[in-house]
Write a structure and sequence with these properties.
By secondary structure, the chain is an alpha/beta fold. About 40% of the residues lie in helices and about 20% in strands. The protein has a 7-stranded mixed β-sheet with strand order 15-16-17-14-13-19-20, with helices on both faces. The chain has a 6-stranded mixed β-sheet with strand order 10-9-8-11-12-22, sandwiched between helices. The structure holds nicotinamide-adenine-dinucleotide (NAD). Nicotinamide-adenine-dinucleotide binds near residues 203, 247 and 280.
C-alpha cells in the first residue's frame, strides 16, 4: 500500500500546509485500502493557484512546437507506464483490467496525443472586415474530475489546457487519485516547467468552493454530478469565471420497427453495462416499438445473462464491481424503487450470488414495462440498470426520448442511416450515435439541458480554453515589420 502525503505544486512535491487528515483509497472489489493520500485545505489551494498563476506568464508565451513536445513527451511516458495506470484505475474503481487497459488507458493516451497536433490553434488569427480575431490562452484552469473514467476525464481537460498555453490545478475524485499522481510524476520527469501542472488530492466538499471561487482562477472545467456542477457554477459566478460543466445523463436509444433487432438490442445492452453502468452518456432508456416488445426483452435478457461478473483482475471478467459500496447501495435503492413503482424486473435485481458479496457488485439488471415518468426513467442511476420502454409511433418515441431534464447523449437504430439521422436530428442531446456508431474523441462531447455547458474533445473542446480578442485595424498593415 502506498502513502502519498504530498501534493505536486510548483514543480515540487509539497506537504500540506495545515490539514493533517488523510484519505483512504479503497478497492471496491474487496473493500481493502490500497493507498492513502493527503487531503488538501484552502491554504493548499492558495499555494497551487499562486503557482499556476506565476507559471502562466511564461507558459502562455511558449511556442506551439514547445507545447507539442511536452504533450508528446507526457504521452510517451504514459505509454511506458500503461500497466501501472491500468492497475491504478482498476484497483480504485473496479473496471475490469481487460477493459481498463484499452478503454480507460490506451484510448486516453491516444486521445491525449491528438492535442499535440492542435498546439498551433491558439496562434492562428481569423480576419474579419476591419480587423482580426486573435486567440489567447484563458489562464489558470481548475480541472475537477469524477471517478468513472478518471484518466480519460483528466486528459480531456489537460490536453487542451496544455495545448493552448494554460496552466492547471487538478483535483481528481477523492476515490480515484492514483492515475493523477502518476501523471504528476510524469510531468516532473519530462521537465514540464514548474507550476504548469499542479495537483491537489482532497474532497470537493471541503475545497471545491474555494477552488472554484478563487479570484486568480480564470476557468473551471468540471465533470461530475449535476448537483456538484450547480455548486461549482454558483461558487464561480461572483468572479465571472468561465465554467465548463460535463454533468449527468439519462440518455435514450430509439430502436425502430424495421431495425436489425439483434444488433440494435446488443448495442444498447452492452452500452449500458460497460463499466458497470457508470458512464454518463449510457443509453439507459431503450425505446422499442410495442409490436416487437417481447422479442426485444428476450434478446436483452440473454445478453445480460452472458456477462461474467467478478474479479476485475481476471481476464474473463466482463463486469466488475461498482466504484464503491456507497454507489452500490445507491444503485440497489434505485432498483428497489423501480420494483416498488411497478416496473417488471426481467433480469438482475437487488440480490447477489454469495461469491460476490465481498465486493460492491450489482448484477446486470433490466426492467421492462417502464413508463417514462417513473423515477428509474428520470433519474440517473449510474449503475448496470437498463429501462425498456415501449412506444406506439416514432413521434411518440422522440417525445419520450426528449422528456428528460438531461440531454447528454442519444442513439438511433433504424433500417438505414438516413432514417436514423432523420430521427436523431430531432433529439435534444449533445451526441447522437446512429446504427451502432459510437463516441470518439474527434467529435465534441457535452450536453444539452441539465447535462452541462460547454464541450470537451476535438477543436470545440480546445476553444473552451481560449479567450478571443478582436483587433480592429487596417489588416493589410499587420504583416509589415514594426
Ligand atoms: P461528484 O459530483 O460527486 O464528484 C465529482 C468531482 O467533484 C469530485 O472530484 C468531487 O470531489 C468534486 N466535488 C464534489 N462536490 C464539489 C463541489 N461542491 N465543488 C467542487 N467540486 C466538488 O460526482 P461523482 O459521484 O464523482 O461522479 C459521478 C457523476 O459524474 C455522475 O452524475 C455522472 O453522470 C457524472 N459524469 C459526467 C460526465 C460527463 O462528461 N457529462 C462524465 C463522467 C461522469
Amino acid at each position: 500500500m502506498n502513502t502519498y502525503s504530498h501534493f505536486y505544486i510548483n514543480g515540487q512535491w509539497q506537504l500540506p500546509v495545515t490539514n493533517g487528515n488523510r484519505i483512504e483509497v479503497t478497492n471496491p472489489a474487496n473493500g481493502k485500502c490500497i493507498a492513502i493520500t493527503a487531503s488538501a485545505s484552502a491554504d493548499d489551494v492558495d499555494r497551487a493557484v499562486a503557482s499556476a498563476k506565476q507559471a502562466f506568464a511564461s507558459w502562455s508565451t511558449t511556442s506551439a512546437a514547445q507545447r507539442r513536445h511536452f504533450i508528446n513527451a507526457i504521452a510517451d511516458e504514459m505509454q511506458q507506464r500503461a500497466a501501472e495506470l491500468t492497475a491504478a484505475i482498476s484497483d480504485s474503481m473496479g473496471c475490469p483490467y481487460n477493459l481498463t487497459r484499452k478503454m480507460q488507458v490506451q484510448d486516453s493516451i491516444d486521445a491525449f496525443r491528438q492535442f499535440a497536433d492542435m498546439t498551433d490553434y491558439v496562434e492562428q488569427t481569423e480576419a474579419f472586415p476591419g480587423g482580426q480575431h486573435h486567440r489567447h490562452a484563458i489562464g489558470v484552469c481548475v480541472l475537477i474530475n469524477p471517478w468513472n473514467y478518471p484518466l480519460s476525464q483528466l486528459v480531456g481537460k489537460l490536453g487542451p489546457a496544455l495545448a493552448t498555453g494554460c496552466t492547471v490545478v487538478v483535483k481528481p475524485s477523492e476515490q480515484t487519485p492514483l492515475q493523477d499522481l502518476i501523471i504528476a510524476e510524469i510531468c516532473d520527469k519530462v521537465g514540464l516547467p514548474a507550476g504548469v501542472f499542479n495537483l491537489l488530492t482532497g474532497y470537493g466538499s471541503q475545497i471545491g468552493t474555494h477552488l472554484c471561487s478563487h479570484p486568480d482562477v480564470d476557468m473551471v472545467s468540471f465533470t461530475g454530478s449535476t448537483a456538484a456542477g450547480v455548486s461549482v457554477a454558483q461558487a464561480a459566478a461572483p468572479s465571472v469565471k468561465r465554467v465548463c460543466q460535463e454533468l449527468g445523463g439519462k440518455s435514450a436509444l430509439i430502436i425502430t420497427d424495421d431495425a436489425d433487432l439483434e444488433q440494435a438490442v446488443a448495442f444498447g445492452v452492452h452500452d449500458v453495462m460497460t463499466n458497470s453502468g457508470q458512464t454518463c452518456s449510457a443509453l439507459t432508456r431503450m425505446l422499442v416499438p410495442i409490436s416487437h416488445y417481447q422479442q426485444v426483452l428476450d434478446i436483452a435478457r440473454d445478453i445480460a445473462n452472458s456477462y461474467t461478473v467478478g474479479d476485475p483482475r481476471s481476464e474473463h471478467t466482463t463486469m466488475g464491481p461498482l466504484s464503491s459500496t456507497q454507489q452500490q447501495q445507491r444503485v440497489i435503492d434505485y432498483i428497489q424503487r423501480g420494483i416498488d413503482e411497478g416496473a417488471r424486473l426481467i433480469v438482475g435485481g437487488v440480490e447477489l450470488p454469495s461469491e460476490l458479496q465481498h465486493g460492491a457488485y450489482v448484477m446486470p439488471t433490466i426492467f421492462a414495462d417502464v413508463s417514462n415518468d417513473m423515477t428509474i426513467a428520470q433519474e440517473e442511476i449510474f449503475g448496470p440498470v437498463l429501462c425498456i420502454i415501449g412506444y406506439q409511433s416514432t413521434q411518440q418515441a422522440i417525445e419520450i426520448a426528449n422528456d428528460s431534464a438531461y440531454g447528454l447523449a442519444s442513439a438511433v437504430y433504424a433500417a438505414n442511416t438516413a432514417d436514423a439521422l432523420n430521427i436523431g436530428k430531432q433529439l435534444r442531446a449533445g451526441q447522437c450515435y446512429l446504427q451502432g456508431h459510437y463516441f470518439n474523441t474527434y467529435g465534441a462531447f457535452g450536453g444539452f439541458k441539465q447535462s452541462g455547458n460547454g464541450r470537451e474533445w476535438g477543436v470545440e473542446g480546445l476553444r473552451e480554453y481560449i479567450e478571443l480578442q478582436a483587433i480592429f485595424c487596417q489588416t493589410s498593415d499587420m504583416d509589415r515589420p514594426s
